[in-house]
Amino acid sequence: MTNSILIVDDELFIRQSLNDFFMDSQWITFLASSGEEALEILEQESPSAAIVDIRMVGMSGDEFIRQARHVKPEMCFVICTGSPEYKPSYDLLQLSQVSGQVYRKPIDDMDKLENHISSLIGN
Amino acid sequence: MILRRKVNIRNSVATRLLKIVFCFYIVFALLVTILHMFIEYNYQKGDVNNSLVEFQPTIESTLSMNLWHMDDQSLKSTIDSIVKIPLIVGIKIKDESKHIIAVDGVVAEADFSGKVEQDINFLGLRNGVDIASKSNAYNLEIFQHTFPIYYRYKGQQRLLGEVTLFSNSSVIFDRVKVQFLLLVINSVLKSLALWVFFLLISNYILRRPLESIADAAENINVENLVNFKVKISSTGNDELSAIENSFNDMIKKLSDSINKEKQTEQDLRANENKFRTLVENVPGVTYRCINDKSWTMIYLSDEIERLTGYPSSDFIANHKRSFASIIHIEDTSLFERVVENAIENKTYFTIEYRIVRADGQYCWVYEKGQCVFDDNEQLQFIDGVIIDITERKTAESEIRKLRKYLTNIIDSMPSALIGVDESLKVTQWNKTIEDSTGVIAADAYGKSIEDVIPQMQSELGKISCSIHTRTVQRNQIKRGVDEADICFEDVTIYPLVANGVKGAVIRIDDITEKVRMEEILIQSEKMLSVGGLAAGMAHEINNPLAGMVQTVSVMSNRLIEKPNMPANIQAATDAGTTMDAINEFMRIRDIPRMIATINESGKRASTIVNNMLSFARKGSSEKATVNYIDLVDNTIDLAVTDYNLKSKYDFKQVDVTREYVDGSCFIECESSQIQQVILNLIRNAAQAMQDAKIPVPKLIVRISHDKDTAMVKTEIEDNGPGIDKETLKRIFEPFYTTKSVGVGTGLGLSVSYFIITENHNGEMYVESAPGQGTRFTIRLPVNSLK
Q1: How far is CA B667 from CA A33, B609, B635, in A?
Q2: pTM over cut 0.80
């Protein structure tokens, strides 16, 4: 079964680079430029995992995860942010769906990220 | 109550007088009576003799007849009748030849006298023998009268014999008996009458007046003395009235002298009152004592109770306690010494000592005493006053404490403080200036400041100016020529304006350290501002960097690392070419190198941003308590195994010496940051030694524990090329690097400095000189040493 991933980032180039990478790795990708858009996608689709930016215009990444995890309880979330000082809030870290490892932009090694997500979703 | 002394009449003067007079009277009367009786006796004796003679004619004829007739019967009756006559007590008749022919009654013959039985014998009695045998010895005086017996007949007479008539004193006694009795009765009666009369009279004229004198003497006292008058019922100018007068005179004199005494006493009392008031107003205890072991008190004013809590009566004559017993035990010997000295020199003494009060507290007293000597220079008393000086002592001790405290403060000042007067002479010289100049305060006082510190010459004008204008003068002086020993001094001159004291206080602070610290502070601030900027920028830079780096990464994937992925082959086919052709094209056009460059540059930019962020991350990290020695040791291990391909330094060549303090050393830190710092220093050292091609590169990592400051000190020492002064000054500056561009960012040491000083409240400094190696020192606060 092909894995699917939702990429939530307001930065087009980042979205694209991740999309390119995961497409190359045979992932089905869904792209959203905001939390709100991502929630809309989740109404239709059920990706296995999501890469979520935190600082976005509109809904923040944290907030998106809080809402999305109710919609898709099986989904995994990996946070990827450009803010060096960011730390996930305590409630998010308590959730088994949310990965404790936060990725900083730029992501040096995207293979590592892929492997991590794969292990999270159980493949 | 005065008992009236009633004089018994037997002991009365009158009685005694009477007794003496009577004794004399009786003796005299007795003598006179005896004389009287003697004379009477003799007179009577003569009378008896006469009677005997007169009696002769009465019996002459009868006896003559009887003898003539030798009629013994008649003679016998005649003798009987003669003897019966009271006057005659005996008879003796002799014949003409002197033979005793008849005796009767009391007779005397030759050497014999006595009472005999009647015996008549005309033939004659044996003379003496018969009489004696018939008589009793006789003591009374015997009188006799002998006469011859004649027979007369017709004018003729014839001697018949002789008759002796005897009488004795008892006859006289019988005669004078009554007369004597009357005489004695008469005398006794007269004496008695005289006695009684004398007593009555003496009672009236002697005893009564004397008694009234006694009464007066008893009743007389000080109160009634003035108007007292003795009245003796006597008349005339006799002795009694003389007594009366003398007595009254005496009373008057007494009264006068008493009055005088009273006056003196009043004066004395007034004086005493004056002195008492004085004594009572003395703000202390006045006393008089004896110089003995216990200072036995003769007088002690009541003030002692306020001072000690014991009433003065306790001390008088050591009634309850001695004064010595309340002197503080530590002061006893001093006290004795001082007093002894004063006695020896015959002077006064003053002493301050402690007294233990009734409540157990002690109080300080001041005592001034004076020895009082008598005319023989013998010590009699010690008089003096004791004054409570506890408050003064407390104040003194407060002042001392305060002075000490102020001196301490002044001495504890890190600044050098010099006080000067108007003529710039030193009046104050604290410890710091002592230490820095080596001149002790005692040597500095009173000397001109320029003599003590020649360097101050340049400041003299300012000091005078400060004193006269009363303004604070400040000046910073830079000393030293060589960069290394340049030091800065801050000289501040404060004029003394209070209390009319003219002068100034000069404060000299060595601010070299401060100036250096300021430089470091400026550096830190620089770094912090870089950090703040970085934090704001990081997100904005990271996003485009991510777009670039990640896209290049995908590009690299597609073109170089995974060229045979299905999408590639499909796309090549669609473009009418092959992946091999494309690969060949890219190789020729150096595309992989370009991609790598983009990738590398992006990553470097990202590293710089991250490093800069370290400056902004103060306190945000989580610290844990770790064993510092283990941490450093592990980091060295990590460094040894680290082999940096690019810089090509081989750590295995470096001889690493580890000198650690015994045991563990726990500090609170973020271990990754500390590790970063240590690693950074070790790598720098290894790199520097390698670059300088040191034949035997040595690295010493030394950890010691400074217990006084509770800091753990880490020294990382190499035998590398060393660092020149210019570099040394700027070594912790951000972006300052000696490495070629691309090899170092110039942030490593500044980040390390920031981590140690800002994030861990530690210290970091470097010592080095060209050619002499480099030593970095890190000091970190210790949690506890276990």
Answers
A1: 46, 29, 16
A2: no
